[in-house]
């Protein structure tokens, strides 16, 4: 049986094959790596907005600075996370 989380990840990899799944510790580390207080705050705000979706998966795109969260299986059902 495929879980909703597995379906989300399958959709993410289908849309962006170079995706690497992030666990919550890696997401928080990304927030903490911000070089300014404003950037750190912005990252944490984005994460809190992403948590409104009960099932979601965080990711990064290998070889880029792109981070995001997928909350649905349709191609556009994701949110890019601002990274500076």
Attribute tags:
alpha+beta, single chain, 3 helices, 84 residues, 4-stranded antiparallel beta sheet
Overall strand count: 4
Largest sheet: 4 strands, antiparallel
Helices, by number, come to 3
Judging from the principal axes of the Cα atoms, what is the shape? globular
Helix/strand/pairing category: alpha+beta
From the alpha-carbon coordinates, what is the Rg to the nearest angstrom?
13 Å
How much helix, percentage-wise, in residues?
40-55%
Strand content: 15-25%
Give me the strand/helix succession: HEHHEEE
Poorly predicted segments: none
Average pLDDT rating: 93
User: Largest sheet, order of strands side by side?
Assistant: 1-2-3-4
Summarize this entry quickly.
The chain has helices spanning 4-15, 24-32, 37-50; strands at 19-22, 57-61, 67-70, 78-81. By secondary structure, it is an alpha+beta fold.
């Amino acid at each position: 049986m495929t879980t909703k989380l597995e379906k989300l990840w399958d959709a993410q990899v289908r849309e962006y094959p170079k995706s690497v799944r992030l666990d919550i510790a890696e997401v928080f580390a990304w927030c903490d790596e911000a070089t300014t207080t404003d950037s750190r705050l912005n990252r944490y705000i984005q994460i809190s907005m992403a948590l409104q979706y009960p099932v979601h998966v965080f990711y990064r795109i290998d070889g880029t600075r792109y981070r995001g969260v997928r909350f649905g299986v349709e191609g556009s059902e994701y949110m890019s996370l601002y990274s500076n």
